[in-house]
Amino acid sequence: MRVLAAMSGGVDSAVAAARAVDAGHEVVGVHLALSRAGGTLRAGSRGCCTVEDALDARRAADRLGIPFYVWDFSERFRDDVVADFISEYQAGRTPNPCMRCNEKIKFAALLERALELGFDAVCTGHYATLVDGEHGRELHRASDAAKDQSYVLGVLTAEQLAHTYFPLGSTPSKALVRAEAEERGLTVAQKPDSHDICFIPDGDTRGWLAERVGAEKGEILDRNGEVIGTHEGAHAFTVGQRRGLQLGVPASDGKPRFVLEVRPVSNTVVVGPKEALATAEISGERFTWAGRAPETDAFDCHVQIRAHADPVPAHAVIGDGAVTVTPQEPFEGVAPGQTAVLYDGTRVLGQFTIDRTVSAVPAPV
């Protein structure tokens, strides 16, 4: 099998490429340049796809004895990931750029080019498992629950899964991957994992957004619509946030308040008690299935709303062009723009972007 190994410059993708070579595949390494700022440097565990990462990927490929290339996907990344991130915040939603990158870049743009060049599959260092079932290929959780990345892969379609290769999915722990990298003489064996948003390496999301969408003062309201404070820009707030509210009016019960809603049209932020974050229902019109679609329009499942959140038992209904999910116990702090991934046991059924939420605690009249 001809395999294109996406090599980020980290230990996971390097070991994944090495295992593809060991399996007897014809492997070519490729690093994706996602920024045209040539001087971009890595800051510890922040950021990825930097100059250092490209050099680390090249050294790993040289060690494995495979061809290596750098492909410029910066324009596509800017349009499909960064621009989407900005527009979602402008609309008062909370986006997940890692989901968009997997959907639009690694398993769309990259896979499309790989297939055009005659490759059979794209190999990555994601921790997830592929199972060839009776009805086609299925995406399942990794054996290492702590490193499982099936959530951020929930956007993959049946066609994409058919040309995907995850050599690390059955590895019991990240420590074993690092030990293997040491044994193979890979210099990235102890390289820190990347965290935060890769295109905001300093971690200052609020400042980064302010430079691009502007910051305009607005009002902070309670659930009754009373003004209890002001803010410097609604884009800086996300549902569930507690810190940085700077409220001028204390709560009657003395308890802290949390962001419940961001209204970009009126540039207002609504806050309330923690219990008001409980969400009884979520739904979304932008959904895809990871392989075979559910056999019925109503089914029980587990739903995960964040990369490291616990899955919640729920009931899902497909109808009127949307997927609607009702959890057995309310979700906490769900924001429009987040991704809900549906599971049947360890298998990923599919995902949808949350467009609408229904609070389990109605606002006072």
If you had to describe this structure to a student in words, what would you say it looks like?
There is one protein chain. The chain has 365 residues and is α+β, with helices and mostly antiparallel strands. It has 3 domains: 183 residues, 3-Layer(aba) Sandwich (Rossmann fold), CATH 3.40.50; 58 residues, Roll (SH3 type barrels); 83 residues, Elongation Factor Tu (Ef-tu), domain 3 (Beta Barrel). The protein is 24% helix and 29% strand. The protein contains 7 helices and 20 strands. The strands form 4 sheets. Strands 12, 13, 14, 15, 16, 17, 18, 19 and 20 form a 9-stranded antiparallel sheet that branches. Strands 3-2-1-4-7 form a 5-stranded parallel sheet, sandwiched between helices. A hairpin with a 2-residue loop joins strand 18 and strand 19. Helix 3 packs antiparallel against helix 4. About 2% of the residues have low confidence. It catalyses: S-sulfanyl-L-cysteinyl-[protein] + uridine(34) in tRNA + AH2 + ATP = 2-thiouridine(34) in tRNA + L-cysteinyl-[protein] + A + AMP + diphosphate + H(+). Belongs to the MnmA/TRMU family. One of its GO terms (molecular function) is tRNA-uridine 2-sulfurtransferase activity. Keywords: ATP-binding, Cytoplasm, Disulfide bond, Nucleotide-binding, RNA-binding, Transferase, tRNA processing, tRNA-binding. Its main location: cytoplasm.
